[in-house]
Amino acid sequence: MMESQKQYNPKFSFEFFPPKTEEAVSKLQTTQAALAGLNPDFFSVTFGAGASSRDMTFETVLDIHTKTGIEAVPHISCVGSHKDKIKEILASYIDHDIRHLVVLRGDLPSGSVSYGQFHYASELVAFIRQETGAHFHIEVAAYPEFHPQASSPTTDLRNFKNKIEAGANSAITQYFYNPFAYYRFIDNCEKLNIDIPIVAGIMPIVNGTQLLRFSEICGAEIPRWILKRLQEFGDDRASIRAFGIDVATELCAHLLANGAPGLHFYTMNQSMASVAIWQNLGIAQR
Ligand code: FAD
After folding, report:
1. With 90 as the cut, is the pLDDT of residue 195 above it?
2. Are 198 and 261 in contact (CB under 8 A)?
3. In terms of Cα–Cα distance, which of 216, 272, 207, 211 is closest to 234?
4. Ligand 1: residue whose CA is nearest its atom 25
5. pTM greater than 0.85 (yes/no)
6. Could you give the CA distance from residue 143 to residue 192 in angstroms, rounded to a whole number?
7. Residue 39 CB contacts under 8 Å (≥ 6 apart), including other chains
8. Reduced to 3 states, what is the DSSP secondary structure of residue 204?
9. 3-class DSSP assignment, residue 256
10. What is the dihedral of CA 62, 65, 68, 71, to 10 degrees?
11. pLDDT at position 91, please?
12. What CA–CA distance (Å, rounded) separates 17 from 229?
């Protein structure tokens, strides 16, 4: 099990979203400074629909890199986009010596009906390779519990493989709380001769209501024993946080012990839980 993954040195990364207000900008700066102290392999910044949000990804990436000296990786999605716009974005990344991307399809904003010139992330990966050759290291998304729109698990796996054949170098998973879903996914990938690193996405639980809302949308399963605990904690945020750190620490330790090639933390622009998990795992001093 996980043989294909054991050849890779584990990589650690943290994901942020671009802040929208002055207050959020200053909060992210505090967060990135705290997490930079852990010396991760990279930070990544999500990419939203809409031009202003897209510009914010770029600005945030430049700001993080300048202030922390740690590699900052922009996400880029293709839903609703045109080739000219994507080319423009890629050119500005190349001008700023950005060499690493997380490449996604994205989701249509509610009310929109047109996918634009790209329908799937594999098409964007192929386009980036066609336009920029080997300049970028390309990460793509993987779904151990399967993407909610996939017509079947087998098709979803084949679609994942298409992204690798189009030129992806590595992958980051959607978050999950059941490590066996991830191990099974890796086994299935091995059967399809997929052997790129597939880093586990980790969502520390800090807010029960928010977690339920996200999981509903992205199809991540919240096990009953976690749900029941969250219900019991109600508004007791300190207990939720302590429980969340405990659950994520155990999950991460299990994954690393079984050969996961890294952990990517969905930080929600907060540092406390991620720092605590790193300290618990003993990877704080790298
Ligand atoms: P795809 O790989 O294109 O897959 C989407 C669906 O289409 C799947 O069901 C797949 O099976 C199916 N499919 C693929 N190819 C075909 C085909 N040829 N024919 C039929 N069906 C096909 N969203 C953002 O908007 N911004 C972000 O910054 C962002 N960052 C993310 C980071 C990570 C690590 C992850 C895991 C997700 C992120 N997302 C982000 C969410 C992502 O955009 C959504 O999950 C989206 O619904 C799917 O994106 P994808 O790149 O996985 O799409």
Report:
1. yes
2. yes
3. 207
4. 106
5. yes
6. 15
7. 70, 286
8. coil
9. helix
10. 150
11. 98
12. 28
CB burial string 107-133: b at 16+ within 10 A, e below = eeeeeeeebebbebbbbbbbbbbeebe
Q: CB under 6 Å to ligand 1: residues?
A: 46-47, 75, 77, 102, 104-107, 120-122, 141, 147, 149-150, 155-156, 159, 162-163, 172, 174, 201, 218
- pLDDT, residue 285, reads 58
- Supply the DSSP symbol for 196: S
Computed over every residue of the chain, the mean pLDDT equals 94
Strand 198-202 versus strand 42-45 pairing type: unpaired
pLDDT by residue (tens digit) across 44-55? 999 987 777 788
Query: Cβ distance 36 to 68 under 8 Å?
Result: yes
Q: What are the residue ranges of helices labelled H in the chain?
A: 3-6, 22-36, 51-68, 83-95, 121-132, 153-165, 179-191, 208-218, 224-233, 237-257, 272-281
The single residue listed with the structure tokens 């809409």 is 50
Amino acid at 66: T
What is the token pair recorded at 154?
């087998």
